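User: quick one - fold this with iron/sulfur cluster bound?
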Amino acid sequence: MGAVTLKIDDKEVKAKEGMTVLEAALSAGIAIPTLCHHEKLKPYTACRICTVEIEKKGRINLDTACSCPVEDNLVVRTKSENVINIRRTILELMLAHAPDAPVLQALTTEYGADKNRFGKEPSFCILCGLCVRYCAEIKKKNAVTFVDRGTTREIVFVPEIASKECDSCKECFSLCPTSALQSAFVLAEAFAFPQISQASAADK
Ligand code: SF4
Ligand code: FES
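Assistant: Sure. Structure tokens for the protein plus iron/sulfur cluster:
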């Protein structure tokens, strides 16, 4: 695999062909926030919080660092005013859905976001897809999935699969940046497969 040289925040960075801008930045000690990225999963570009400015042959575009491949002579700006403003707005939109999520709270302080800019409509899920993709791509079980589209999109556990697989796994729980996944599981366990819920309570 060939080597490429790019510039990230005025720092010359050497990277391998096939790496993403995010991976190149991390290798150079340059932090870029992420909410839907996981090193074992394919890029999904749902959250857009990793947006950076990419200058290529004199043209400047915005792109997601977690999916954008490195190229020779790219110029990347991770902290321009434009980038900071975009990240702040993305955060403010997510805070309407998951106002108490610690990971969003930390970024809110860093980016000076207004927690109340958009009216609260707590679904507690920011649709990052980490749980769904981890279960599908790593565990190959599809016990949790998305339903609906647009504003009614949400995650649900598939009772027939979840009742057999989830109790001994729960590996996706720690990936969830909000409390949405755990709450959805407790509800599914109580309503959709209560026999499992009761059996595990009896074992305790
Ligand atoms: S439940 Fe959590 S991990 Fe799953 S999509 Fe929603 S925020 Fe992401
Ligand atoms: S981390 Fe890149 S789009 Fe979510």
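One thing worth noting: Residues 34-37, 45-50, 64, 66 surround FE2/S2 (inorganic) cluster (ligand 2) (CB under 6 Å).
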